[in-house]
UniProtKB/TrEMBL annotation:
Protein name from the UniProt record: Aldehyde dehydrogenase family protein
Family to which the UniProt record says this protein belongs: Belongs to the aldehyde dehydrogenase family.
Keyword Oxidoreductase in annotation: yes
Keyword list, A-Z: Oxidoreductase
Species of origin: Novosphingobium aquae
Active site (record annotation): E268
UniProt cross-references to InterPro entries, sorted A to Z: Ald_DH/histidinol_DH, Ald_DH_C, Ald_DH_CS_CYS, Ald_DH_CS_GLU, Ald_DH_N, Aldehyde_DH_dom
Chain segments annotated as transmembrane: none
Pfam families: Aldedh
Gene3D superfamilies: Aldehyde Dehydrogenase, Chain A, domain 1 (3.40.605.10), Aldehyde Dehydrogenase, Chain A, domain 2 (3.40.309.10)
Keyword Chaperone in annotation: no
Aldehyde dehydrogenase domain sequence ranges: 28-493
């Protein structure tokens, strides 16, 4: 089927032609409002969807609560495992739909969307397989009881309860699945609040959850704006845990909203990640690696390496290479397989990115490449590179969430001094070190304060690899065993025998 000059699957076209409701207690229902999702590459409307606020969130939390106390808690773990494997197979069979929905809703290039859909299927399989291995331990009983009688102490791992999952727009399906899959595996029930900018893939996922046969109320999806639906979920006394991915500013609000019932809060927030290129780095690797550290996903990427520290010995050669790479990047519609960089998510976000570019120029940074918004529909901003940046410039301090790279040259070989440059940020999500010297690599890695540091690559996320932030980049970890533990409580049991 043709979509704006590109081919999409008939099932995607059919999905876009529908009006979408929200999923509460196993049923598709209307809400108090209605929004329209748009294609950021063209600005054209995609599909309308029902939205809600406090009332809909309350109904969804009540449904999740009832399902948690009822069918979901009673279901044998082997059955829960099968349900999740079934969901993974349904997602796999609908990969093209899920991929195309994220492309048109978010603007991401097809090669990224294809990759994230495959990762999402892998993640549901991974957590399905982890269910039967959830286990406590046996421990020596306390001294005062053991002194009197035989005793037994063990731990139980129990689900946290009703989890509220608040999801951003930058990798819509992925950021939903990396919360939903471990939450369900742990035995929690969930209320998902997708981003109002990118609701479509989560709605398609909702259909797949029903098709797989999950009991009503286990997965609820309520769309709406952050200040309405998101804030109501974060504050709801019936929610035991909030897992939030989004900006650091919203993260603070989530924490405040959760104070009422002291719900558990996990936060995956923003970043301003350092990329350190040492004089002995392999530039053939580093040039594309550094370019994509910043420009992957048009820079709308929490892990983006946007503070580039280049040793003076390789600064000019590196910049020449990265600028040439940036100049060759093909900007376009994500459905075009040749596209390497898509549009900014919205007019407002593009305007914010352009203000950051202008601000860097005013502050005295040297523009090496890009710097402009393309004069065509959609918010396409050229991959942009600044050098001669200094620590006090906003371009070195603030998360821009766009294709903007800030380079600072350094002369020293002292690893503590280099790490001090890298660590000069309140964030601590990701980082990378580029060098052929193994000793230098590992000594620098141990000095960088971030939840994920890569050597000769950047942003190496994986289903089984813990991911999360130091500092103001967040609380807790997602992915891997840590991602499952985040939805489990530990109960210690001691029995006098
Ligand atoms: P955002 O904070 O504006 O929104 C995220 C979600 O929170 C959306 O669903 C939104 O509707 C909701 N929300 C907004 N205000 C709210 C409120 N007051 N109460 C409750 N919910 C509210 O973030 P965004 O613009 O969607 O995403 C971009 C940000 O997300 C960037 O800062 C990026 O670094 C971060 N991010 C982090 C990670 C990570 O894993 N650390 C991953 C992706 C994105």
């Amino acid at each position: 089927v043709a979509f704006d000059g590109h081919a999409i699957a008939p099932e995607t076209a059919a999905f876009l032609a529908e009006r979408h409701q929200m999923l509460i207690n196993g049923e598709w229902v209307d809400g108090s409002g209605e929004m329209v999702s748009t294609d950021p590459a063209t600005g054209l409307p995609l599909a309308s969807f029902a939205t809600g606020g406090a009332a809909e969130i309350h109904r969804a939390v009540a449904a999740a609560s009832a399902a948690f106390q009822g069918p979901w808690r009673r279901m044998p773990v082997a059955e829960r495992t099968s349900l999740m494997f079934r969901l993974a197979r349904i997602m796999e069979a609908n990969s093209r739909l899920l991929t195309e929905l994220d492309i048109v809703d978010n603007g991401m290039p097809s090669f990224i969307a294809g990759l994230t859909t495959a990762n999402c299927v892998e993640m549901v399989d991974y957590y399905a397989g982890a269910i039967m291995r959830i286990a406590g331990e046996t421990i020596a009983p306390p001294r005062h009881i053991a002194a009197e009688t035989e005793a037994l102490t063990y731990t139980l791992r129990e689900p946290v309860g009703v989890a509220g999952l608040i999801v951003p727009w930058n990798v819509p399906l992925s950021t939903a699945i990396l919360k939903l899959a471990p939450a369900l595996a742990a035995g929690c029930t969930v209320v998902v609040k997708p981003s109002e900018m990118t609701p479509l893939s989560a709605l398609a996922l909702g259909r797949m959850v029903l098709e797989a046969g999950f009991p009503a109320g286990v997965v609820n999806i309520v769309n709406g704006t952050g200040p309405e639906a998101g804030a109501a979920l974060a504050a709801h006394p019936g929610v035991d845990k909030i897992s939030f991915t989004g900006s650091t500013a919203t993260g603070r609000k989530i924490v405040e909203a959760g104070l009422g019932n002291l719900k558990k809060v996990a936060l995956e927030l923003g970043g301003k990640s350092p990329v350190v290129i040492m004089p002995e780095a392999d530039l053939a690797l580093a040039v594309p690696g550094v370019a994509l550290a910043t420009f992957f996903l048009q820079g709308q990427n929490c892990m983006a390496g946007t503070r580039i520290f280049a040793h003076a010995a390789i600064h000019d050669a590196l910049l020449e290479g990265v600028a040439a790479f940036a100049g060759m990047m093909k900007l376009g519609h994500g459905l075009d397989p040749a596209t390497q960089q898509g549009p900014m998510i919205s007019d407002a976000h593009a305007a914010k990115v352009m203000r950051a570019i202008e601000g860097a120029q005013e502050a005295g940074a040297t523009l090496v490449a890009g710097g402009s918004k393309l004069g065509r529909p959609g918010n396409f901003i050229q991959p942009t590179i600044f050098t001669n940046c200094t620590r006090d410039m906003a371009v070195m301090r603030e998360e821009i969430f766009g294709p903007v790279m800030a380079v600072q040259r350094f002369e020293t070989d002292d690893l503590d001094a280099i790490a001090a440059l890298a660590n000069d940020t309140p964030y601590g999500l990701s980082g990378s070190v580029w060098t052929r010297d193994l000793s230098t690599a590992h000594r620098l890695v141990s000095r960088i304060r971030a939840g994920q540091v890569s050597i000769n690559c950047h942003g190496a996320v994986g289903t089984n690899i813990p991911f999360g932030g130091y500092g103001q980049s967040g609380w807790g970890r997602e992915f891997g065993q840590a991602g499952l533990d985040a939805y489990l409580e530990t109960k210690a049991v001691t029995a006098r025998l």
